[in-house]
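Cross-posting from the modeling subforum.

Setting up a comparison between two proteins and wanted a second pair of eyes on the formatting. Protein 1 (sequence, then structure tokens):
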Amino acid sequence: MNSMYKLLSLLGIATFVLTVYSCRSGKITDTAKDQETIIKKQFSVEGEKLSLSFKAGTAHNHPTFAIWLETADGSLIQTLFVTRSIANGYYAFGDAGDGKWLKVPGEAKRPAALPYWLNRREKTQPEQTLLPTKNQPVPDAYTGATPSGDFIVKAVTLKELPKVFRVLVEVNQPWDWNKFWYNEKYPGDSDYKTSAQPSLVYAVQINLDNLMEEYHLNPIGHGHPSGKNGQLYTDISGFTTALQIFQSISLIVNR
């Protein structure tokens, strides 16, 4: 890991305020969903202060997600947060081969989880692969456990931001089949079967010269169903419960 990422590991330590224990499997209870987690990510002292509030929806059950910033023309500025499982390739249910999952934690390759972010994330090593692994993880400065209910991400960015930028979130949750995204839609595609309804991408554009009191991120498309590319597909008409993972995502820029 180079010197910049060593520095990030020191500055970007996540602070969690948990009012319930964090479980790794099983259905989330109503009680757990009522609790709120606060995640703090400070990457510098001179960056912009952003506060993102996530309200868990009725379908929220340990989703994988990433939060990042881009310029108005789509160039990566930085990742703010990504759930730990995809950040190190180690999941609550490991890979048993042939598209099957272990009933115990283990390593796995799941390109369909967050393909849009995966194709944009920071390049930390010259030989970096698309998917993070145990040997090539996303630096801890960016990562954390999946909150079990509502949560707030309070972040100070690595540097000052351009006047106009975008905030994006990509989220995915396995086993959420529906009439359009059904199990045998792509026969033999084991990567698709780890995803079901593909990842959803939310976004909002910010103009620092004309700030609003609060912003709301809205869905703008989805990732590739089996993670074969980093394209954004704008037709989300076949989505149902995936749209209910988050009830709302709001943003405040604190200046």
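Protein 2 (same layout):
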Amino acid sequence: MNYPEKPFHRPPAADGLTVALVDARYLRWLTRQDEGEGQSQGPLARDGWNELLRHLLHRHGLRGTLLRTYWYAVQDDQAVHDDQTLRVLSSTDTDGVALVRQMTADLQALVSGGRVDTLCIASDDDRLMTIIDTAKLAGITVCLVADERALSMPRLMQQDPSWARLLREADRRIVLRASELSQALLARSQMAADGPVSADLDARLQAVVQAWWDDLVEDDRDSLREELPGQRGLPPEVDRELLVRAKNAIGRSLNFQEKRVLRSQARQQATGESQDAGAAAHEDV
């Protein structure tokens, strides 16, 4: 018996349209921002997100077009970015009910529209499982953004079973390293928020660097003179020591801009060469 071929014009998920839905509080948690001291709690810088997500999707074999990102946050950053829609939630939404309600409504509209092939969701709220299942039954590929813990699902099932169940519901898990996310979103927001370092603080940081340099034995100085010109930033052990010294000297943790200045001063001290502002801007956070 010959069966008529059913027309189906949707392109494969790997080459179709993708829409992302991002919970800003979840991304902030992925950066481990709440584990550090003196960190800004202002809005994340959204301008680096779409580029980062395109890279992640390609890395996971999804080569489609990122049509748009819906960004859910309790703070309006007053910014306008191409291919992004900001959804401002109530600041009283401490339990995430408003987030789930708005994200679910948007997902339902996208599913019923029938033009989206892949949904990429950045959230750990397991109340989204029902709408995720609805999207999958409609033939849409659903991806969830997670960190490296998603690579060891049995362990995650023990540590955070509700999040693990949500991740297992997805067709694919897009693994995002905290360092990648911080570089794309946190650094830019902190660069915008942190003002210039005063002359007094600049001198105090220079005194910290000079004391650190004076305490080094000559062999360590020679090693740094040889290594630093070919490296980006400072060796981790040197960076940690300088940050601790600076924190003890001024009585608090340094902000992003102050760390850049401290690292630039240390490189200049070791190499004898000055760094321009553009080079210092590329120091690691």
